[in-house]
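Subject: Sanity check before I submit

Could someone independently write out the structure tokens for this chain? I want to compare against mine line by line before I put it in a report. The sequence has 225 residues.
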Amino acid sequence: MALLICDHVAPELVDEHGTYPDMFRKLLGIPFDSFYVCDDHFPEMDDYEQFVCTGSKFSVYDDLLWVEKLKELTRDVYGAGKKYVGVCFGHQMIAEALGGSVQRSEKGYLIGVHTFTIHKQKPWMVPYQPVFNVLMLCQDQVVRLPEGGEALASSPDCKAGMFTVGRNFLGIQGHPEFTPEYDRAVFESRLNRADSEKVKQAIKSFDQKPDSERLAGYIRHFLTQ
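---
Independent answer below. Compare away.
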């Protein structure tokens, strides 16, 4: 498996929270090779059958060379019929690369723990529950799925919380790889005083436990089904 890393953990947070490869290694428990695509380090597509694309502080519509190259790789992986899972930015990359649309949400930042309802059960959703909690940290959202996209889960503030394209592409808007402590450290560094009420609500939401282990199982089953 190739992990497509689209950002760096802030240096001052690495000692406590680890790097993105550390987070995904702990989440998934399966071996992978790491590629910092945000630093223009890309894998050879033919060398891998499975790809996981991470979150990022960047947007999929940013005019950056590595973002355009990642769109091309994403389309090539889709054309080759290989497995691809996108998380947050990676979820949005699937939509943007395959003909959907991503925009800055009128809801603003979504942070803390959010609850999503699953509208369509799939065989890889094991063990299945009709709702899941997941940590969020995003401003952009998928506003139009690509052709062949199937919406699987939503929340009141995020209509495209999980979707698939065909049998091989899965997007998850939330961050199952995050801990509440890391999520809080990042959003408190990004939001200003005007967002203090939103921050308070997000901190209160940590009373709900994220279903990270269950979502990790979904991802593993999807990659190997």
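---
OP: Matches mine. For the report I'm noting this point. Residues 2-224 form a domain with the Rossmann fold fold (CATH 3.40.50.880).
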